[in-house]
Each structure stands twice: as structure tokens, then as C-alpha cells.
Amino acid sequence: PAKPGENVSFSNVVGLLKYPSLILFALVLFFQSAFEGTSGSYTISFLNIYGGMDEADAILSLTWFTVGMLAGRLILGAVIRKIKELKTLYAYLMVAVVGVGLLHIFKSHCTVAYLAMVLIGFGVGATYPVILNYLGSAFRDLQGTAFSIAMFIALCGQYAGNKVVGIEFAD
Fold first, then answer.
1. Which residue of 44, 49, 67, 129 has the fewest CB atoms within a 10 Å radius of its CB?
2. What's the predicted TM-score (pTM) here?
3. ∠ CA 151-154-158 to the nearest 5 degrees?
4. What is the percent of the chain where pLDDT is above 70?
């Protein structure tokens, strides 16, 4: 049988919770997961209700979000080799902010909304890889435990985000 490479105890887990960087990056993943988890239902409802977009066109915007995320992750390694990880994350997130701005301004223009979704997907595509790489480097001895803590907090974000959007758009 496989044996774990880490000696994980309750005191080790509690000890990791004392590191502000772990909690901070886990909270970033909390909001990232909430954003990704809610983008499906929120975007379709937003474009349909507030943008007056046909539901089929609004649903297609999710494909463009995924295309943007794929594009962002495909070139991420090359970008990180050129500039530092956190600067890369900031640059990617700025692309996402531009996309969000375009989406809110041009919510009724299908082509611009699709472009905005590509930018948003591209922009958020770096968050998980960059943060998990940082956590893996910072907590080498307890990598799996640090990932578990971060992922638990991230999944709580996805749950909370979906709950809030469900309440917002409840009939």
C-alpha cells in the first residue's frame, strides 16, 4: 500500500493556519472559485435579463469564457518565464477587470460581450496555477496539507457564491 510522504497531524494542520500567506492565498482562491462557479448561472441571467440578449447567445458566452481561460493557461508558462509570478497574476487579473468593465458597459452587444468573456476567462486563468505553485514552493514539507487547506477554503467560496447567486436570481 502507498504511504503518505508527509507526516500529517492535527498540530501540523493548525500550525499551517498560523501563516498569513496561506490564509491570504486561500481567500483569493475562495473568491476565484466563487467567481468561476457563479459565472455560468450569473452571466447567462445577467446578459439575458439586463442585456436583453437571447438565452442561446447568452449561453454561448460561457464557451467564450472557457476559450479565454484555455488561451490564458496555454501561454502562462511562457509568460511566467518572462516576468515574475505575482506580476503575471496581477497582469492577468487586470485583463479580467477590463473584461468585466466591457461586459457591464456593452451587455447588450453580443460580439463585445463575447470578447469581454474571452478577456475575463483569460484573466482568471492564471489564478489557480500561480497560487498553487506558490503554495507548493512555500510549504514544501507539507505541500499536500497546504493544498488541502487552500482547496477546502476555495470550495467553500464556490458554495457561498452559488448560494448568493441562487438567492439573487430566484424566481
1. 49
2. 0.86
3. 135
4. 95
